[in-house]
């Protein structure tokens, strides 16, 4: 271990190194000003007038899917209610008029007459159904 002894007057080594915090304070103050200007703009709200619902039953009927069923004996049902072939088109139009989506689900019994099933789908398409989806049973695994 070596020790150096200085003889003579002490020499000043200069200023001790210090961190300059002025730029840091400047940046923090600029960010503070920016946030103070932007914060009131973010909390502004706009007024919105929502339309009132005219009828509660219309919303409930819109949730229930429209299902056309053809039974094995050729009977046609619209949402489990038997419908005569002559009034099927008018009933489909009336049900679809209150709905935003014009989708009709079609279900036919295995023994249903093919001609009746096709005519039923055609009537649904002719009276406002944009999409006719065919319901199928899950295959037994």
Quickly describe the structure.
This protein is of the alpha/beta class and 141 residues long.
Q: Give the CATH class of the domain at 65-134.
A: Alpha Beta
Classify the beta-strand content into a percent band: 5-15%
Shape: elongated
Average pLDDT taken over every residue: 83
Quaternary structure annotation:
single chain
- Tally of DSSP helical segments: 4
Structural class: alpha/beta
Write a structural description.
With 141 residues, this protein is an alpha/beta fold. It has a domain at 65-134: 2-Layer Sandwich (Nucleotidyltransferase, domain 5), CATH 3.30.420.270. 37% of the residues lie in helices and 15% in strands. It has four helices and five strands; from the N terminus they run H-H-E-E-E-H-E-H-E. A five-stranded mixed sheet has the order 3-2-1-4-5, with helices on one face. Strand 2 (76-78) and strand 3 form a beta hairpin.
Topology record:
Elements: H1 22-42, H2 56-63, E1 66-70, E2 76-78, E3 81-83, H3 88-97, E4 103-108, H4 114-126, E5 131-134
Parallel strand pairs: 1-4, 4-5
Antiparallel strand pairs: 1-2, 2-3
Task: Give a quick set of tags describing it.
single chain, five-stranded mixed beta sheet, 141 residues, 37% helix, elongated, Nucleotidyltransferase, domain 5, alpha/beta
């Amino acid at each position: 271990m070596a020790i150096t002894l200085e003889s003579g007057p002490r020499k000043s080594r200069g200023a001790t190194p210090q961190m300059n915090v002025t730029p840091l304070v400047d940046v923090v103050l600029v960010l503070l000003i920016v946030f103070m200007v932007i914060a009131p703009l973010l909390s502004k709200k706009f007024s919105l007038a929502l339309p009132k619902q005219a009828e509660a039953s219309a919303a409930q009927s819109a949730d229930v899917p429209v299902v056309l069923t053809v039974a094995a004996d050729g009977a046609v049902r619209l949402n489990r209610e038997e419908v005569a072939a002559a009034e099927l088109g008018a009933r489909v139009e009336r049900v679809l008029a209150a709905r935003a989506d014009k989708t009709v689900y079609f279900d036919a019994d295995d023994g249903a007459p093919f001609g009746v099933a096709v005519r039923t789908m055609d009537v649904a398409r002719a009276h406002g159904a944009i999409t006719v989806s065919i319901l199928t049973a899950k295959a037994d695994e």
